[in-house]
Amino acid sequence: MTNPLLADWTTPFALAPFDAISDEDFAPALEQALAAHRAEIDAIAADPADPSFANTVEALEAAGTALDKVLSVFFTVAGADSNPQREALQRDFSPRLAAHFSEISANKALFWRLAALWEQRDTLDLTAEQARVLMLTHRNFLRAGAALEGDAEQRIKAIKSRLATLGTEFTQNLLADERDWFMELSEADLEGLPGFVVSAARAAGAEKQAKGPVITLSRSLIVPFLQFSPRRDLREKAYRAWAARGANGGKTDNRGIAAEILKLRAERAQLLGYENFAAYKLDTEMAKTPANVRELLLAVWEPAKARALADGAVLEAMLRADGIAGPLEPWDWRYYAEKRRKAEHDLDEAALKPFLQLDRMIEAAFTCAHRLFGLDFAPLDVPLYHPDCRAWEVTRDGAHVAVFIGDYFARGSKRSGAWCSAMRSQAKFPEVQAPVVINVCNFAKGDPALLSYDDARTLFHEFGHALHQMLSDVTYESVSGTSVARDFVELPSQLYEHWLEVPEVLGEFATHVETGEAMPKPMLDKVLEAANFDQGFQTVEYVASALVDLEFHDGPAPADPMQKQAEVLEAIGMPHAIGMRHATPHFAHVFSGDGYSSGYYSYMWSEVMDADAFEAFEEAGSAFDRDRARALEANILSTGGSRDAAELYIAFRGRLPGVEALLKGRGLVAA
Ligand SMILES: [Zn+2]
């Protein structure tokens, strides 16, 4: 019998036949799919014909279909509905997949075919998209070191392998420090903490087998503790332990690892012909150069710092009113900010919740997509991997566009967070394939399910990513949907969040679960205002981390990263009462892997764009302006990575974004 993962999927819309697939199918299917892909790659590399776009680049695009099918199903269930068997498979698959893909990028014969095509690119008569796919494919090989020979080739291999080891050690040390530290609380110490913090502290205590409730270094527990505990001595103790993660001396200390990582990255970048690691990393991003990133961060830094210092003065006065001398300290900020928030913007989450029904918010996201892009959504009855999943057929003017799957509820088998992935990406080569896109969230189940405002924003965010996949209209899969630069990929998702904030959207869809009445105006105003609260603090802690990350990688590697960090903070005038969001010894974004190294700025880069892009609709006088929506689809949502990101943005907006809309959006300048 054919393995159901590898068989032709004759299901509606060729969806994966989840009801026919069992966990025993994954390992043999992966085996076969890897072998098939390897054979395809070998055949392309060994082709006796001269390299052509068709026999090399298009052949690479067409290869790996079986592998895509197996991995799309496997990673969907491994992330959203795991079990011990799937976890074991994942541990087994990860290193094998890494080895498989690095074997391809180290294939010299294949690389020389691409290099030959790249040399002749101007005579190949390629379409703009084909030229772009050739450039990207060739560049990926170059950046993986495919052009290096001899000692340099060996050295880059050794560096990559050492960096992988160091990244894992960094993560494990951090986890060990987070796991080992906890602070026991007496019943009296619980005073002033809200119920959800008390129950989380008790649950953590039970897990640590402590005598009573404890505070751990998990962000979801320590942050509310710092926010609500009136006990300044306990806040200080907890904060100091939190800030010291990865810098406690002994064998879990990450400072030496950080220094070695920075040194190896610099060497790697130089072997690949770049001046330094930041130049190497940013070359493929929309930002392109370290100077552009620095300019953006500093443009945001000054107004954010001014706001934070003004807020800090208010909080310090509150500290004095509590009879405490001395300056406001980092363990005081969240506590007094929370007191101030309560006094100025008190928003009762419990009263808000009945107005935010999951089903109504899904309807709101769909309706906005209908008004903007003419999309319609009809429920589909198809077998999926879990009974909580729902599917819709997405059409436009009656024509099929995509299948959208929503898997919204939290459960033990799902990893935390929220994400969007394409189980099948849009493409027209080698044949037309319509996208199958899934949003996975972790909302609390209920009957009916009710959301917090943050949840509703997450729902819109992930749906924005889904639109980027579903509206994709390119030829080649490698540039389809969200296959764009990292500092561009959050634009569609963060932009879509703005439609939740359009008063008429909440007005129509935020209706009370029992009475059906619309959310009262004062509540709606408070919801919208609360989003800007304490943005000086949040922007400062973020930008400080982003600048340190940038300066670590732009220039020679610092021998002592902690000293370099201190110099950067000194130079920008870091406020005394605010810590970095992530200090070096626990900056996992930067040191656990390469993902966000010299790239932590990209969250703010995207936010600059989404604020500026939404302003285009405001300037047109309506959040649902059809011309702007058409321009957004034509230049950003349908184009994937088929064109350069900056070029796409300019095509949509007529210019590159400035920081003004972001500063207004964060309330850092007067609107
Ligand atoms: Zn996102």
Q: What does it look like?
A:
The protein has helices spanning 26-45, 53-62, 65-80, 84-105, 108-119, 128-143, 150-180, 195-207, 219-228, 232-243, 255-271, 277-282, 290-321, 330-345, 349-352, 358-373, 453-470, 486-489, 491-500, 503-509, 521-530, 535-553, 561-572, 588-591, 602-620, 626-637, 645-653, 660-665; strands at 182-184, 214-216, 375-380, 390-396, 399-409, 419-424, 436-443. The protein is an alpha+beta fold and 671 residues long. The strands form 2 sheets. The protein has a 5-stranded mixed beta sheet with strand order 3-4-5-7-6, with helices on both faces. It has a two-stranded antiparallel ribbon with strand order 1-2. It is globular, with a radius of gyration of 26 Å. It starts with 25 loop residues before the first helix and ends in a 6-residue tail after the last helix. Bound molecules: zinc ion.
Instruction: Bin the helical content.
Output: 55-70%
Shape: globular
Largest sheet: 5 strands, mixed
Q: What is the radius of gyration? A: 26 Å
Bound molecules: zinc ion
Low-confidence stretches: none
Mean pLDDT rating:
95
Distinct helical segment count: 28
Number of strands: 7
* Class by SSE composition: alpha+beta
Our measurement of the CA-to-CA distance between the termini, rounded to an integer number of angstroms, reads 66 Å
Largest beta sheet: what is the strand line-up?
3-4-5-7-6
What portion of the residues fall into strands of 2 or more residues?
5-15%
